[in-house]
């Protein structure tokens, strides 16, 4: 069990140093327990029977219900990005390359990363709140008392569902983002849809899709792991559920950005980009 997060503010150097040490210790405990949870989850995946019905239920809860927010994000990001690029490129007489720039940006970075940020925050908050409520009401303890494994029953279906749905939602976001961009380019800047789509397709290669889509299973893993971790570590009743939900959203967002930077560098190193 992790210690409570330090909340008191330091008043002098000694208390400030002690405060920072406690924060570092709390951070180390959180990282360690998240790692242990990940190891237990993978071990359970390999050694226990998979609950297909719960997995399908989580696909619907985490995936299908996230499509609307992913679609809205993709559409409006596509519109804004098209306007920004068109204004800049028109000044240099390169407006005809708009489709190429938008397609590569969407495939490599915007569709996977922004979708993971928005959808991941929603999913992590939902998982943390659900498991947090089960923890403070002792439902998780009841599962253990009945001889069942909470990791197998609660964590594994959510993690597998997140890993599966993130590439699918990212693909949907990419299609919708390109469609909205193409429509704005045609209506506002007189670029024919056929020309926009042909230049976009010509500029995209397998590496462009791979560098974006291959990130998303890692994002899904982080989203489920951290959401489950903070949910299962909830203490302090309904107030604790709120704290766990907030922490899950913040940590998941930062983790996705860090993982995106790391994975991008890895893909550049191995020549995927």
Q: How does this model look, in words?
A:
The chain is mostly helical and 273 residues long. It has one domain (53-270). Helix content is 84%, strand content 0%. The chain contains ten helices and no strands. It has helices at 13-47, 52-63, 67-91, 98-136, 139-145, 150-189, 193-203, 206-213, 216-232, 237-270. Helix 1 crosses helix 6, helix 4 (98-136) crosses helix 7 and helix 9 (216-232) runs antiparallel to helix 10 (237-270). The two termini are 42 Å apart. The relative contact order is 0.15. The model has no long low-confidence stretch (mean pLDDT 89).
Write the layout of secondary structure elements.
Layout: H1 13-47, H2 52-63, H3 67-91, H4 98-136, H5 139-145, H6 150-189, H7 193-203, H8 206-213, H9 216-232, H10 237-270
Helix percent reads over 70%
Given as residue ranges, the uncertain stretches (5+ residues, pLDDT < 50) are none
Overall average pLDDT: 89
> In total, how many domains does the architecture comprise?
1
Characteristics:
273 residues; 10 helices; mainly alpha; 0% strand
């Amino acid at each position: 069990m992790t210690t409570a997060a330090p909340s008191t503010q330091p008043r002098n150097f000694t208390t400030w140093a002690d405060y920072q040490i406690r924060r570092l210790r709390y951070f180390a405990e959180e990282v360690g327990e998240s790692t242990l949870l990940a190891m237990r989850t993978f071990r359970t995946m390999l050694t226990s029977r998979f609950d297909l019905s719960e997995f399908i239920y989580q696909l619907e809860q985490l995936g299908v219900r996230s499509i609307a927010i992913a679609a809205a994000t993709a559409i409006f990001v596509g519109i804004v990005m098209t306007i920004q690029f068109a204004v800049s490129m028109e000044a240099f007489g390169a407006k005809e390359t708009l489709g190429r720039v938008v397609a590569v940006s969407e495939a490599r970075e915007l569709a996977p990363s922004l979708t993971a940020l928005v959808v991941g925050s929603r999913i992590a908050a939902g998982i943390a709140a659900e498991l947090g409520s089960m923890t403070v009401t002792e439902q998780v303890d009841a599962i253990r008392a009945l001889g069942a494994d909470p990791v197998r029953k609660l964590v594994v279906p959510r993690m597998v569902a997140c890993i599966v749905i993130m590439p699918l939602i990212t693909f949907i976001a990419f299609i919708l983002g390109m469609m909205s961009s193409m429509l704005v380019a045609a209506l506002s800047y007189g670029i024919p849809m056929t020309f926009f789509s042909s230049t976009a397709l010509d500029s995209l290669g397998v590496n462009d899709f791979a560098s974006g889509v291959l990130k998303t299973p890692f994002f899904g893993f982080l989203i489920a792991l951290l959401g489950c971790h903070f949910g299962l570590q909830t203490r302090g009743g309904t107030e604790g559920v709120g704290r766990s939900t907030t922490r899950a959203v913040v940590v998941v967002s930062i983790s996705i950005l860090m993982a995106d930077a790391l994975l991008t560098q890895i893909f550049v190193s191995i020549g995927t980009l």
